[in-house]
User: Fold this.
Amino acid sequence: MKSFKLMAAVLSMSLAIFALGYGLAASGRSRVADRMNDPHATGESARDRRDEIAAPAISNYRLDASQSKFVAHAFAGGLFWFKGHEHLVAVREFTGEARLDPGSLTGSSLELDAKTSSMEETSSVFTDAQKKIINKELHDIVLLPDQYPDIVFRSTNVMGNSIDNLKIAGDLTLNGVTRPITIPTKLTLTGDDLRAQGEFSIDRSDFKVKATSAFHGLVRVRDKLTFSFDIVGHRSSS
Assistant:
């Protein structure tokens, strides 16, 4: 009799454990089915996987001066027949590289080296003869390319919430003087090309840039110089 009761108790316990296990399994299957049938849940999972697959990559872009514009605007304060005319001094030769990290813009950077010997007057208000005189004074008295061959910018920080509204802080070296500046910049990406547009201003006195010549007084400008740029870069493999 005792053996029978013991067997009955064991059997009852086994049935209870089986029923509990079946209930847990069914509940688990139900939750999986509910999640599969829930468009929001499946959508979130799909988006998570897409985000992992399509995570933006860090890219380097080499700047292309031949497809770019980089111009210094200087409103004249000089004498003679140049008075009142704005100087538009284009930078013809420069090299550099931009590093863009779309996932963390603060990890992006910009380096640019411009040749002072390549800078020349381009304003259409001047004749070719006038431009020749201005360019000579730019090179011989104002820019001094033999002494200061490069204008250099090195970024130290990139700020902004999107690439079309950035502030690039860095050090500008001009005429042998280095000063911190901040450049508001709009970036656009098209295939393997990057385009940077914007403008910034400096005080020429901060960089000890001369404003007038001992010869003709043709490059005689006010203190504020504004640089505008429309620079193109191509994605590089490195």
